[in-house]
Amino acid sequence: MNRIQPILISILLIVCSFTASAKKLNILVITGGHSFDEKPFFEMFNSFENISYISLLQPEANAQLGTIDPKIFDAIVFYDMPKTIAEQDKANYYKLLKLGEGMVFLHHSQCSYQNWSEYKTIVGGKYHEERNSPQSSTYQHDVTFTVKITNPHHPVTRGLKDFEILDEVYGNTEVLPSVTPLLTTDHPKSSKTIGWTHQIEKSRIVYIQPGHDKNSYFNPNYQKLVRQAIEYVAAKK
């Protein structure tokens, strides 16, 4: 697993500027704010032959986004779930979006920043944590359901057919009407649309709702989905 402390980010950026390869994508993977199966999660990224990654941990990661050079890092994968965010850190997101940095949001990253209203316009949807409200979203662990591919010709889903997965489902989530659905399911405990893409500013965005634990990380269809999502958002530049 490739990990760094925030204090080393400046050194890393210099090193990466000399080692970046045109054939290999260099990405950031941001975690923190929610527990997960770390070893199998990063094993999935280790298996991506054409992708090298560096992991940053929240809350320090948000501050480091302001130093990211899109010429060095091809995409950012968010698998984090922080509760709060500073105004300057919000600005860091928009700076990267205006520069065309591709972003992939996985699973619980949809639940981040409940009080930052603009965040859902970046991700393309929101899990609502309000209690005792008609708007409240729901979750259920260890559900076997079918992931349906809405467009098998899209670069994110190319080569994939409908597949079964054991994962956590989210119900009653908000999906913005402006997104392009990529994945759906008909499981009664889940929202229908569970994966999509859209563009904000100059950046391509992909959100994939499955991805709770090793049952997803080791699923070859899920691995292909994540890898192709990274390649798709990175290709914008």
Q: What string, H for helix and E for strand, traces the elements in order?
A: HEHEHEHEHEEEEEEEHH
Mean pLDDT score: 91
Low-confidence stretches: 5-11, 13-22
**Radius of gyration over C-alpha positions, nearest whole angstrom:** 17 Å
**Widest sheet, order of strands:** 2-1-3-4-11-10-9-6-7
Q: How far from one another are the termini? A: 26 Å
Overall shape:
globular
Q: What fraction strand?
A: 25-35%
Helix content: 25-40%
What is the number of helical segments per DSSP (H or I, 4+ residues)? Answer: 7
- Class by SSE composition: alpha/beta
Number of strands: 11
The major beta sheet can be summarized as:
9 strands, mixed
Please explain how this structure is put together.
- The protein has helices at residues 9-19, 38-46, 60-64, 87-98, 119-123, 214-217, 220-234, and strands at 25-32, 51-57, 75-80, 102-106, 125-126, 138-149, 163-171, 174-175, 180-184, 193-200, 203-208.
- It is α/β, with parallel strands linked by helices.
- The strands form two sheets. It has a nine-stranded mixed beta sheet. A two-stranded antiparallel ribbon has the order 5-8.
- Mean pLDDT is 91; it is low at 5-11 and 13-22.
Short description:
With 237 residues, the protein is α/β, with parallel strands linked by helices. The protein has helices at residues 9-19, 38-46, 60-64, 87-98, 119-123, 214-217, 220-234; strands spanning 25-32, 51-57, 75-80, 102-106, 125-126, 138-149, 163-171, 174-175, 180-184, 193-200, 203-208. The protein has seven helices and eleven strands.
Topology:
Blueprint: H1 9-19, E1 25-32, H2 38-46, E2 51-57, H3 60-64, E3 75-80, H4 87-98, E4 102-106, H5 119-123, E5 125-126, E6 138-149, E7 163-171, E8 174-175, E9 180-184, E10 193-200, E11 203-208, H6 214-217, H7 220-234
